[in-house]
Amino acid sequence: MDAKRWTIAAGLAATAAAASAQPPLAPPTAPVALSVMTYNIEGLPFPVRRGRAQAAERIAAQLRAMRQAGTAPHLVVLQEAFGRAQKAIGAEAGYPYVAFGPGIHAANDEPQDAADRAFAAGARHLKGEADGKWAGSGLAILSDYPILSVRGMPFPRYACAGLDCLANKGVMLATVAVPGSAAPVSVVATHMNSQEASGVAPARYGWAYDRQVRSIGRFLTANLDPAAPYVFAGDTNIGRSPTRTAAFTAMLAALPRTAERGEVRTALATCLGPDASCSLDSAREARRSFRHGKDWQVYAPGAATALRPVAIATPFGHDANGAMLSDHIGYTAVYRVTPIG
Q1: Is 276 exposed, middle or buried (0-12, 13-18, 19+ CB in 10 A)?
Q2: pLDDT tens-digit readout, 102-141
Q3: What whole-number distance in Å separates Cα of residue 272 and Cα of residue 292?
C-alpha cells in the first residue's frame, strides 16, 4: 500500500493569512515533559450545527490565553476541523507548526476484496453513504516544535457507514522534533466511524469500523518507525463497546515494534488507575472523558526514549454553568520524556 505523503508546507500555507495578522508567540519553555491535547471540536457545518465558527474562535482565544500564561499544550490533535474557522485555530492560538490530514479529494488505493465490494453495494443515498464526500478528514495537528514529516491516508471511500461517509475520515502521522527526546516523537491522529449517530444498523457501522481498523493497521505498519516513541490520539468512537475495544487494541498490539510490543496503554487509564501517581486538575472531568470512552491517547516508548504520563489537565471541559465549547471534553496528557539505557 502506498500512503500518500502530505507536505507540511501545505498545512502552513493554509494558515499563513491568519498568522500574518496575529504573529505566533514564542513557544513555552522547553519541557521536561511533553504535553499533548486531543479535542474533537464539534466542527460540523451549518445547518447540521449552528454557532460552530464562534465556538472555534473561542477555542483559539482560550488556547492563546493559555500560551500567554505558559500552560498551553505543546501539541494539539484536533478532530472535526472542517471549516475555515476551525482550520484557523492553530494560527490564531500562536502555534508555529500546523499540519492537516487528508483533504476532501484524497483517495485510498487499497484493493477491494469480495467483502468490500459486497459492503459497498449496500450503500444507500438516503443514509449519506453514496453522496460523495462533503468535507475532508477534519484532522489537524498543532505543534510548538518542528514537524519533520507528515503522512496521511483517508479510509477507503466505501469503508464508512451512514452519515459518517460525508467526511473523508482517515489517519495521519506527524514526526515531531521534541526537545529532550533522544529521537523524534511520532504523533498519530484519527477520527473513526461513529455508532448510533451514523444513522444505520449496527451490522453496517460495525463492519465499517472493523475495516477502518484494518486500514489504520496497514498504514502504521508501513509508516510508523518501529523504534520511535509515539502518541496515538483522536476520536476513536469506541465508547463502551468491548468489540471495538478489542479490535482497536489488537491492531495496535500487533504493530512491529522494537519496544514493548503487545502493550497498549492509554493516558487516562494509566492516570486514573488504582496505583496512579498522576496529578489531575479535575478528576471529575478526567473520569467523564474516560467513561465517554471515545477520546483516546495511546502511548508507547521507542527504542531510546520512554514516555510516561504524569498529569492530566482538562482545559476544555464543563464551565461553572455546566456548558462546554464542544460535545467532547478536550484533555491534555503530560508525558515525562526520558532516555532508555
Answers
A1: middle
A2: 999 999 989 999 999 999 999 998 888 988 899 999 999 9
A3: 14
Q: Report yes or no: 129 and 161 within 8 Å, Cβ to Cβ.
A: yes
Q: pTM of the entire structure?
A: 0.91
What is the rounded distance in angstroms from the CA atom of residue 278 to the CA atom of residue 281?
10
N- to C-terminal Cα separation, the chain? 35
Relative to beta strand 279-280, strand 265-266 is unpaired
Query: From the DSSP assignment, how many helices (H) and strands (E) are in the chain?
Result: 10, 13
Residue 220 CB partners (closer than 8 Å, separation 6+): 171, 173, 188, 255
CA distance 234 to 331: 11
Cis preceding-peptide flag for 156 (omega within 30 of 0): no
Q: Closest by alpha carbon to 169, among 80, 86, 60?
A: 80
Q: Are 121 and 157 in contact (CB under 8 A)?
A: no
3-state secondary structure of 93: helix
pLDDT tens-digit map of 277-307:
899 999 999 999 999 999 999 999 999 999 9
Q: Which residue has the cell 477520546?
A: 295
Sheet holding 185-191, edge to edge: 147-154, 170-176, 185-191, 230-235, 295-300, 265-266
Query: Are 278 and 311 in contact, with CB atoms under 8 Å apart?
Result: yes
